[in-house]
């Protein structure tokens, strides 16, 4: 097992660091003093100054750089090319038609980015110019922050934040420690203790500090906040003394000094090389499935565009084969045109056709989609139901690019602790050598003090056991990293010790430890504080015991245990170790293993978190050896972590088992309900946890992930020890496939209730065996496939004993499987960050383990239960909205451009545009843009409450169902049909002799002397109305805003047309639209044809909708019908809730 | 009612509970079911049916007469002549005859039509300067580059009106005669005014400002378009107020047709004349055509004469929809 872990560990490390290890290191001269000549020569390196540059642009490079960045986007580049083509060649439409929208888009984006950058500049300046204190020639001097250089010694006072990354030299506290809070870095508000370098902590004044003669060697900056290795060489009498430096010596930029009067520290990383700055590098962009479909459609449309242009060019030259068509007498070429070569002419014609039809790829779609996403995400933040009163937090949207992806989730990967559970630990019991102790903390609502609150369930132990018991309690009091916080209350995690006079809190990054120490307090052993490397404990007899803390072997998630080495006042040396049972038992040599194991397993089944405690008495010689091992590892510059792990491995052995503890972590409110809803919605929920199998399984049962009738399949180390992995896998897959034998894959989409559910439990070790690449060559590849096959048929999967990176691996495995399902990862701690980043959608829970998950997530919600609303309601809405947006955008541009294409057949393929320039320009920008934007913001096809009540509706939109090719083709065909109706309808009106010559139904004095602009305007009017009405027909949620925008934009079109045709525009060279619109409206047939053509265009869609609804209604439509009957009910509820909220505020 | 802005404590970040932000605005949710759509359908169908029947009835009382004079009567001679470019300058007039079996009662409109004449070619359409036509003096002497290749003549003098559209104006002239049963011939009077949009004639198309100058003086320094026989200020020799850019025929021609086969209004029957107060009586007619310029370069040009009565529109498709 141990070997397994260490190989896994090396694997992971290799994965993190890449194949080669970081070799380069830097050397820093403290106070810029040269080292004594005897030492080896270091190469002087250049370091940047301490200027923080988060801004992207300067005043001078803003325009070119921003332009460059914007035109790197394919769409923008495409429109730029079109615009340039229009400028260069003689094109049908004026460059304004594509230049203006492009200019608009670019300007809006540039203004937004410029403003953001200006804000960054401002904050940069504020940071760069803020004063810092530097020790120079024995005096403290003020300097601007940006002038700090590597090697400077700075002086920081309490509550100041560190200007760059520093190594702590000395502190005003006697023990050479200082406290910092990294709230602004990772959100953990607990105070962390950092240590000064042993040899320099005595230098406490600026003169003394200035006299320090030392160099620091450390690694080059890297972004991991919690990793740092280095070495300090202090020259005492020219004799270098080397000391290890670790992250416990490193003060990070952005952290704040607390509870410490002042410190002296030396600058090691400056400016953009600080860990904070390195961490601000942007995450990789996630793209939603909708965006991918959109791009696919774009490619199709680009092909259509090119083929249209090609066809027209070809036809043009076929048509022009006749001489007088090529150059009729009334349309002679200019000289330069005559001289042009035919190939060039053909190419220009091709480009001109491209320009003419380029509107088929709408410039405004990108803007609209972006606006929709940006504005739409506010509804998530505004949602009152996702506000948590306890935390005072509401949902946070870190990226709005993935809104619609929330409606597409197929796999949910959730963390257990803090996500499914509250992460609010409560000490339940402990078991020493099989004797169980339960603190009766709460008795009739009162906290009972002291030793009396202990209840022994078993027979009282003998005297030897008594000794063991006390050792156990002491072990728990000593083996932790809890700090005691006095008086002051801190935000965030508070654990009151309200007994006694002074109010003090235990603070720790791990809530388990706090629970344990508190539990010990209730059992009579109170941990008081850590003072001068001595831990003080108040024992049952109210005596203070002091233990010297010699070493802390910190916790890590691979080893899954931590240890301390202490020296009792009697001089005995102990190593106390606590950790997960699987991490402890293999290393235990004596103790009542079986009894403890039984108890641990029992507790685990009940869903309690268990820890085992063991100790090892150390002889002075052994301690010497331990010290040697540790200092050797700590001094290493390279591979320090690996060597430390090896050292820990050697030290934490031959343990004697003391007992075990059980801590309860309650399920979050409505966690079970949420998981059930997700199941009903067709999502597969996987729990990935570092916890042990039994505990995790218990939580899964409690949270209804597994039901009573779920058949559990185990794929754990225990089983693979008995059989080979190969056999187990094939066994399982046979079991699963037998059940699902005849049925197809889509059993989960509706029938899952009928047949047996399968639940899979797999642990980290087995998983890594399954995933291990290429060792048994051919068969290993199959393992993954078989494993995936099993997983597909299981409704729930529990992965326990997971390392953080394994979580990401699992997500990646599913993500890359052949169906490419959409995955969502949700978690609250730093260990979930990797999977949050890996999954399509990452959701952070604002939990108790800091803000790292929240910072790295795409969305953050206060509680797990809010997942239900964000997926089932918001996700569903966003998906419906954006899919309509995308389809509609393509549809309306087909309608727009196809008549122009048809017109080419009547104008001798001369690229004559059908519509006036103003119409071409404004169609997408203003006449038809707002209704669809608004639709895509507020459409609700089904009432919110029904969506929440009936999660199965989520299946309706699964697998990107509204953006499938058939639907896309339907929309496109509809667009083509409408275009044909509009064009030939108007053509009929114009070309029909009877009709045109008599176009005087309502005008008496003029004739229908309609030219081509009237024709174009007629088609355009029908177009705008048809397209808007089509949207109106699709709108299922008519608020007053919809009415306002839809009718408003139609009225705007009419008013604009009247105005545009109503004036002889000064400075314009053409006046072709003068009175065209009015003239058209003044003729009766035009009115008739407008009404008739609009109706005819919309008819097929309406008929299709009615028929489909009547004969093959979708679930959504059925619900809509039902919802209508109940329509009055929710509104009443809403009224009530509004009234109550008014009262409460 | 007033919302308290600074909410205390942990509720500070609480979102507003407004209907909009909570997406709970009251809304009307229509559904397209057969029950809602069908009545609307029937209603529309009824309207269209009525309209269609009415239009069908009215259209039956309209009459149309079309005459292709390209090679009709003696015009074949002119047509042949025009095929040869060298004869372009010579005038040619010819005569065609037709008869009306039933009288055309009421207003009668006289159109000329062209076939396969692409007024909608892009380069052709753009080749005009509206700035010149609306009477801007700078544009008169400096026509826009759009007019190319008809901006200036060989001597560099600006063309007014410039551009291919004006250059190719249709300038056949027609005289219509009615021959009654007694063999007497009456000239059918055609009103050549009021055939344009009111706004075009009176607002858009303007001659450059005349300060006590004659039109000819205003246009001094410009030349007539290449294919024209008379300068723009002498287009209508009968009516001096109908000259320059505000000439009705020019305005009609300048409104480019949408399709290659088109017709444009030539005149309206002047019913004040005693013979024609009722419209055109039945009988035989002849038409004298001054076959002039359009056949240049050997283009096959078709002309048709449409004479119609009682203008009303028929939209048969309405009936179609109505039946549906």
Task: Describe the structure in your own words.
- Chain A is built from 39 helices and 38 strands.
- By secondary structure, chain A is of the alpha+beta class.
- In chain A, strands 16, 17, 20, 24, 25, 26, 27, 28, 29, 30 and 31 form an 11-stranded mixed beta sheet that branches.
- In chain A, a hairpin with a 4-residue loop joins strand 27 (about 560-570) and strand 28 (about 575-580).
- The longest helix of chain A has about 40 residues, at about 865-905.
- Chain B is α+β, with helices and mostly antiparallel strands and about 325 residues long.
- Chain B has one domain (about 65-320).
- In chain B, helix 1 runs antiparallel to helix 10.
- The two termini of chain B are about 55 Å apart.
- Chains A and B meet through helix 12, helix 32, helix 33, helix 34 and helix 35 of A and helix 1, helix 3, helix 4, helix 7 and strand 8 of B.
Query: Considering DSSP H and I runs of 4 or more, what fraction of the residues of chain A is helical?
Result: 40-55%
Question: Can you give the mean pLDDT of chain A?
Answer: 80
End-to-end CA span of chain A: 59 Å
Structural class of chain B: alpha+beta
Shape of chain A: globular
The general outline of chain B is extended
Q: What is the straight-line distance between the termini of chain B?
A: 55 Å
| DSSP helical segment count of chain B | 10
Q: Quickly count the domains of chain B.
A: 1
- Tell me the Rg of chain B in angstroms: 29 Å
**What proportion strand of chain B?**
15-25%
Strand content of chain A: 15-25%
Strand order of the largest sheet of chain B: 1-11-4-8-7
- The total strand number of chain A stands at 38
The quaternary state of the protein chains shown equals heterodimer
Helix content of chain B: 10-25%
**Can you count the helices of chain A?**
39
Class by alpha and beta content of chain A = alpha+beta
Series of secondary-structure elements of chain B, N-terminal to C-terminal: HEHEEEHHHHEEEHHHEEEEH
């Amino acid at each position: 097992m141990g070997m397994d872990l260490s190989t896994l560990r090396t694997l992971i490390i290799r994965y993190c660091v890449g194949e080669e290890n970081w070799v380069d290191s830097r050397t820093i001269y403290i106070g810029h003093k040269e080292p004594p000549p005897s030492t080896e020569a270091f190469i002087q390196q250049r370091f940047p100054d301490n200027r923080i540059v988060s801004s992207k642009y300067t005043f001078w490079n803003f325009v070119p750089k921003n332009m460059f960045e914007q035109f790197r986007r394919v769409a923008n580049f495409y429109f730029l090319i079109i615009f340039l083509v229009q400028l260069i060649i003689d094109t049908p439409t004026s460059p304004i038609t594509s230049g203006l929208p492009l200019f608009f888009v670019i300007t809006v984006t540039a203004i937004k980015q410029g403003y953001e950058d200006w804000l960054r500049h401002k904050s940069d300046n504020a940071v760069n110019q803020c004063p810092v204190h530097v020790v120079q020639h024995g005096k403290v001097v003020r300097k601007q922050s940006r002038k700090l250089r590597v090697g400077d010694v700075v002086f920081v006072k309490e509550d100041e934040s560190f200007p760059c990354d520093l190594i702590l030299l000395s502190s005003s506290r006697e023990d050479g420690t200082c406290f910092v809070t990294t709230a602004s870095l990772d959100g953990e508000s607990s105070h962390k203790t950092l240590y000064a370098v042993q040899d320099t902590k005595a230098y406490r004044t600026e003169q003394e500090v200035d006299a320090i003669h030392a160099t620091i060697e450390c690694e080059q900056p890297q972004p991991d906040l919690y990793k740092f290795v280095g070495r300090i060489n202090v020259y005492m009498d020219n004799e270098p003394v080397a000391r290890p430096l670790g992250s416990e010596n490193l003060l990070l930029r952005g952290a704040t000094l607390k509870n410490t009067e002042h410190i002296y520290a030396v600058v090691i990383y400056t400016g953009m090389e600080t860990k904070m700055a390195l961490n601000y590098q942007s995450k990789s962009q996630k793209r939603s499935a909708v965006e991918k479909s959109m791009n696919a459609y774009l490619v199709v449309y680009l092909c259509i565009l090119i083929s249209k242009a090609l066809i027209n060019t070809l036809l043009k030259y076929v048509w022009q084969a006749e001489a007088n068509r090529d150059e009729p007498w009334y349309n002679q070429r200019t000289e330069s045109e005559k001289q042009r070569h035919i190939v060039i002419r053909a190419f220009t014609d091709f480009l001109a056709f491209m320009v003419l039809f380029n509107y088929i790829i709408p410039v405004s779609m990108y803007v609209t989609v972006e606006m929709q996403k940006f504005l739409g995400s506010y509804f998530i933040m505004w949602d009152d139901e996702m506000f948590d009163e306890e935390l005072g937090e509401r949902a946070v949207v870190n990226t709005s690019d993935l809104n619609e992806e929330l409606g597409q989730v197929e796999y949910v990967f959730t963390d257990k602790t803090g996500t499914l559970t509250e992460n609010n630990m409560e000490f339940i019991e402990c078991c020493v050598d099989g004797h169980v102790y339960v603190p009766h903390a709460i008795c009739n609502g009162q906290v009972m003090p002291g030793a009396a609150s202990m209840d022994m369930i078993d027979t009282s132990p003998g005297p030897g056991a008594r000794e063991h018991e006390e050792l156990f309690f002491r072990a728990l009091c000593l083996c932790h990293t809890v700090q005691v916080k006095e008086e002051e209350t801190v935000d965030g995690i508070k654990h009151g010790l309200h007994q006694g006079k002074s109010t003090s809190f235990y603070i720790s990054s791990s809530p388990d430890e706090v629970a344990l120490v508190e539990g010990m307090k209730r059992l009579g052993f109170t941990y008081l504080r850590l003072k001068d490397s001595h831990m003080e404990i108040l024992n049952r007899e109210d005596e203070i015991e002091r233990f010297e803390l010699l070493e802390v072997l910190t916790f890590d998630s691979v080893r899954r245990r931590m240890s301390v080495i202490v020296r009792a006042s009697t001089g005995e040396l102990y190593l106390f170790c606590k950790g997960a049972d699987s991490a402890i038992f293999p290393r235990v040599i004596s103790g009542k293993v079986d009894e403890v194991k039984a108890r641990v397993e029992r507790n685990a089944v009940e869903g309690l978190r268990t820890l085992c405690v063991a100790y090892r008495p150390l002889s002075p010689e052994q301690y010497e050896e331990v010290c040697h091992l540790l200092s050797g590892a700590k001094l290493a510059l390279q591979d320090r972590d690996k060597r430390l792990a090896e050292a820990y491995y050697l030290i934490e052995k031959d343990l004697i088992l003391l007992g075990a503890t059980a801590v309860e972590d309650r399920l979050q409110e409505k966690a079970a309900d949420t998981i059930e809803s997700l199941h009903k919605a067709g999502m597969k929920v996987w729990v990935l946890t570092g916890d042990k199998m039994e505990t995790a399984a218990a939580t899964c049962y409690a949270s209804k992930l597994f039901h009573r009738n779920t058949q559990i399949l185990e794929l754990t180390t225990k089983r693979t020890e008995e059989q080979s992995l190969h056999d187990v896998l094939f066994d399982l897959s046979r079991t699963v496939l037998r059940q699902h034998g005849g049925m197809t894959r889509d059993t989960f989409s509706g029938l899952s209730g009928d047949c047996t559910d399968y639940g899979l439990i797999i642990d980290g070790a087995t998983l890594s065996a399954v995933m291990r690449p290429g060792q048994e060559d051919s068969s290993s590849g199959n393992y993954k496939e078989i494993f995936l096959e099993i997983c597909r048929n299981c409704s729930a999967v529990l992965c326990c004993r997971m390392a953080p990176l394994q979580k990401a691996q699992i997500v990646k495995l599913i993500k890359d499987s052949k169906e490419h399902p959409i995955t969502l990862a949700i978690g609250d701690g730093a260990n979930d960050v990797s999977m949050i980043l890996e999954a399509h959608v990452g959701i952070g829970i604002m939990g108790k383990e800091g803000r790292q998950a929240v910072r790295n997530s795409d969305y953050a919600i206060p509680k797990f239960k809010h997942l239900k609303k964000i997926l089932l309601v918001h996700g569903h809405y966003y998906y419906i909205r954006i899919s309509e947006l995308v389809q509609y955008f393509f549809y309306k541009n087909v309608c727009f451009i196809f008549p122009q294409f048809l017109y080419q057949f009547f104008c001798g393929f001369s690229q004559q545009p059908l519509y006036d320039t103003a119409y071409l320009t404004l169609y997408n920008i203003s006449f038809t843009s707002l209704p669809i934007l608004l639709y895509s913001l507020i459409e609700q096809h089904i009432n919110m409450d029904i969506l929440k009540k009936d999660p199965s509706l989520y299946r309706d939109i699964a697998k990107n169902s509204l953006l499938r090719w058939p639907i896309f083709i339907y929309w496109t065909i509809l667009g083509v049909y409408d275009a044909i109706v509009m064009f030939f309808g108007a053509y009929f009106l114009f070309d029909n002799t009877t009709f045109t010559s008599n176009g005087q139904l309502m005008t008496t004095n003029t004739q229908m002397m309609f030219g081509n602009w009237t024709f174009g305007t007629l088609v355009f009017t029908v177009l705008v109305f048809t397209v808007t009405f089509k949207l109106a027909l699709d709108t299922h949620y008519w608020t007053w805003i919809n009415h306002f925008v839809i009718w408003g934009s139609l009225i705007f079109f009419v008013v604009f047309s009247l105005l545009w045709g109503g004036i002889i525009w000064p400075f314009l060279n053409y006046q072709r639209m003068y009175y065209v619109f009015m003239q058209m409206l003044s003729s009766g047939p035009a009115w008739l044809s407008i009404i008739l053509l609009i109706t005819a265009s919309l008819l097929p869609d309406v008929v299709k909708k009615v028929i489909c609804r009547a004969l093959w209604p979708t679930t959504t439509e059925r619900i809509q019908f039902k919802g209508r009957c109940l329509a009055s009910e929710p509104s009443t509820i809403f009224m009530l809730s509004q009234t109550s909220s008014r009262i409460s505020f | 009612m007033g919302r308290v802005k600074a909410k205390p404590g942990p509720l500070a970040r609480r979102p507003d509970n407004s209907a909009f932000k909570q997406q709970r605005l009251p809304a009307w949710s229509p559904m397209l079911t057969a029950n809602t759509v069908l009545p609307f359908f029937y209603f529309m169908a009824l309207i269209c049916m009525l309209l269609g029947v009415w239009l069908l009835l009215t259209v039956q009382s309209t009459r149309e007469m079309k005459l292709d004079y390209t090679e009709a009567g003696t015009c074949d001679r002119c047509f042949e002549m025009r095929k040869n470019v060298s004869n372009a300058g010579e005038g040619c007039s010819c005569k065609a005859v037709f008869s009306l079996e039933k009288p055309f009662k009421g207003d009668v409109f006289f159109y000329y039509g062209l076939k396969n004449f692409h007024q909608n070619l892009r380069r052709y359409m753009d080749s005009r300067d509206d700035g010149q036509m609306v009477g801007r003096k700078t544009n008169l002497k400096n026509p826009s580059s759009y007019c190319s290749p008809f901006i200036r003549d060989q001597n560099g003098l600006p063309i007014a009106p410039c551009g291919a559209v004006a250059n190719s104006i249709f300038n056949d002239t027609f005289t219509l005669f009615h021959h009654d049963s007694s063999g007497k011939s009456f000239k059918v009077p055609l009103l050549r005014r009021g055939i344009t949009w009111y706004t075009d004639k009176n607002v858009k198309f303007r001659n450059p400002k005349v300060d006590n100058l004659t039109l000819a003086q205003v246009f001094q320094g410009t030349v007539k378009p290449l294919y024209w026989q008379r300068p723009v200020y002498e287009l209508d020799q009968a009516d001096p107020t109908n000259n320059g850019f505000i000439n009705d025929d020019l305005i009609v021609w300048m409104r480019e047709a949408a399709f290659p086969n088109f017709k444009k209004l030539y005149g309206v029957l002047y019913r004040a004349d005693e013979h024609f107060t009722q419209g055109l009586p039945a009988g035989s007619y002849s038409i004298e055509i001054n076959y002039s310029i359009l056949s240049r370069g050997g283009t096959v040009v078709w002309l048709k004469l449409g004479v119609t009565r009682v203008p009303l529109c028929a939209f048969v498709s309405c009936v179609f929809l109505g039946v549906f």
